[in-house]
Amino acid sequence: MGILSRLILEAGKQGIELALFVILPIMLVMFTVIRLLERMGVMRVLVRVFEPILKPFGVPGLGVVAMLQMLLVNFAAPMSTLSIMDQSRVSDRHLAATFALVLCLPQANVVFPLAPFGLNVVATWVIGLVGALTAAAFTFYLFMPKDSDSTSELEPIQDYDQPASESLLDMIRSVGKESWELAFGAIPFLVLTLLMVGLLDKTHVTTLLTALFAPVFGIFSINSQIFLPVLTKFIAGGTAMFGVLVSFLDQNLVSILDVNRIAGLIIHPLDLAGIAILTAAGPRLPRLLLPAAAGAGIGIAVRTMLHLLWF
Q1: Among the listed ranges 20-24, 91-95, 122-126, 304-308, which one has the minimum average pLDDT value?
Q2: Is this model's pTM higher than 0.70 or not?
Q3: 60: helix, strand or coil
Q4: Is 20 helix (H, G, I), strand (E, B) or coil?
Q5: Cβ atoms within 10 A of the Cβ of 39, count?
């Protein structure tokens, strides 16, 4: 019991520190940036600029908003845009392509907290966009039948609702509330995940699994210690994986080079938690999950190989 109590206290301390001193300030700044961009009309301009670039990949104008929300806010932020698209006349093909794009993009709530530890944000974004556009194209042209494109698409600018004007003080309060809710909500996932890692380590399960998968990682010259963060990511989501990665970085079990090399495989919302949250955005999304996930899987494979080649 003494060992268990010590593990609980250590996991609690580290989880709260990560949430309050890493996630909270970083997301507060990013939420503020995105709100200021919206107030200044920059988001609307970005939609107009990127729409003709993304349209050949099957992504309509509103997909640009979803992309920016994923890159600059967090993995749940595109829910509002996906909901608008789901309820509008956007075709199944365009919606599935946008869904695949979102599932393959690197989410801000993992990218920015890892940046102070040495994650290459520019490379992660560039490679992430290449992989996400690949995912969207495969979904739009290969995994979705053409006869599902019978409905017409709404004008993207009409669909993008500019936030109601509010005072700067009200905006800061709103951003602070959202950032606090995000950080506070991450604490249970962080604490429980770090406790699980501690228990697996004490029972030598981590050593066994690492040794078991070492030959697979060795083929690609990847540190086998990265296996547990990868497993955590696909079961518990990106926030939980972030907690494990930081713990491993602190213990020098993995280096930031290892994280940069494997970032394409682990920084995206295609996991159990991400799928559960994003598919709740609209009634059509669960039906489109299979083709979107298939396209996203191809995009993530492309991202993984590009990260290994880059680093």
Answers
A1: 20-24
A2: yes
A3: coil
A4: helix
A5: 15
Please give the DSSP secondary-structure letter assigned to residue 167.
-
What three-state secondary structure class fits 297? helix
Contact partners, residue 170, CB within 8 Å, separation at least 6? none
Element (H, E) at 306: helix 285-310
Q: How far apart are CA 124 and CA 145, in angstroms?
A: 31
Contact 267, 245 (CB under 8 A): no
User: What residue type is assigned to position 204 of the chain?
Assistant: H
User: What distance in Å separates the CA atoms of residue 101 and residue 107, rounded to the nearest whole number?
Assistant: 12
The one-letter code for the residue type at 186 is A
**CB neighbours of residue 263 within 10 Å:** 26
Report residue 166 CA to chain centroid gap.
29
**By C-alpha distance, which of 309, 304, 300 is closest to 138?**
300
> Mean pLDDT lowest for which of 84-88, 147-151, 205-209, 301-305?
147-151
Calculate the CA dihedral of residues 262, 267, 272, 275 and round it to 10 degrees.
Answer: -140
Contact 269, 257 (CB under 8 A): no
Structure token pair of residue 300 = 């993530």
DSSP code of 16? H
> Exposed (0-12), middle (13-18) or buried (19+): which is 152, by Cβ within 10 Å?
exposed
> Which residue, 60, 40, 41, 58, is CA-closest to 50?
60
What tokens does 85 get? 């698209």
- Single out the residue of 307, 297, 308, 305 nearest to residue 135, CA to CA: 297
